[in-house]
Amino acid sequence: MKKITSAALICAALSLLASLPAQAHYLWSENTSKGNLIYFGGVDENVREASPGRLDEFANLTLSVQQHKKDDVVTTSRTARKTHDGFATAPALSANESLIGQDVSVPVKDLSAYKLGILKLNFYVRHVQIDRVFPAALDLDAVPTGVANQLKFSFKGAPLAKFKAKLIAPNGWITDLRTDAAGLATIATPWRGNYVIEATCFEDVSGDFEGKHFERIRHRLGLTVVQPKGPKTFTPDYAAHDHDH
After folding, report:
1. What kind and span of H or E run contains 104?
2. Is this model's pTM higher than 0.85 or not?
3. Please, what's the b/e burial string for 141-168 (b: 16 or more CB within 10 A of its CB; e: otherwise)?
4. With contact defined as beta carbons under 8 Å apart, do 112 and 215 qualify?
5. Is the Cβ–Cβ distance between 103 and 58 less than 8 Å?
6. 198 near 220, Cβ under 8 Å?
7. Mean pLDDT score across all residues of the chain
8. Which whole number is the average pLDDT over 148-153?
9. More confident residue, 2 or 102
10. CA separation for the pair 152, 136 (Å, rounded)
11. What Rg value do the Cα atoms of the chain yield, rounded?
């Protein structure tokens, strides 16, 4: 691969939605009474890829849990079991824990039809409560800062300035968010529940992976932000689905 001098400068925000496939797939997680579930697809589209099928593209999903212990944050690995429509882990996450995961060995894909080129696909996932501060740990990451409803987006440790992402509220309301010059963004969380953020950037690095050439790397983060306070809102029809534990 080519050497990079400033990762944040060459990580371009995904803003031309017209050039995207109809369904931009990402990982996201949900807490249930039986544990934590990770899906691949789109919560806003009610798409959850299955196995056999596109879920099988994830052969090396690695997971860890960051946990607050006294004045420190301790990271431990966590295993996941593949189900027919996702990955199941247990137990469910507490407020003082943040799940992080990645799979950077997804096969190279030709998305030239969408004017994106031939891409190496890196996927990341994080689950965190909005009022808990954790350090960034993924190449493409976003974490609460301790300021009310504020997140900091980073790429390889550097702030992502003027970066655009998509937020889906618990009732299906969708809005765009944009970071400032310091990579900070304030999100609206008026209702109790999960807010899912999909963030994508491209790294202008070419190379070869598993015998296939790629023109650049696409990094995609699915971030579940939990708001434990506020009134409940309605659940959209598309969010009603069965879980296979």
Report:
1. strand 97-110
2. yes
3. bbbbeeeebebbbbbbeebbbebbbbbb
4. no
5. yes
6. yes
7. 90
8. 98
9. 102
10. 9
11. 17
The 8-class DSSP code of residue 113 comes to: G
The answer to whether 140 and 219 are in contact (CB under 8 A) is: yes
- CB 210 within 8 Å of CB 17: no
Q: Is the dihedral of CA 117, 10, 180, 38 positive or negative?
A: positive
Straight-line distance from the first to the last Cα atom of the chain, in angstroms, rounded to the nearest whole number: 40
Write out the two tokens for 30. 């949900």
Distance CA 232, CA 218 (A): 35
Look up residue 62 and give its amino acid.
T
Tokens of 201: 């950037």
Distances (CA, A) of 198 to 95, 127, 165, 184, 226: 21, 12, 6, 16, 15
198-243 pLDDT per residue, tens: 999 999 999 999 999 999 999 999 999 999 999 999 887 655 444 4
Q: How confident is the model at residue 24 (pLDDT cuts 50, 70, 90)?
A: confident
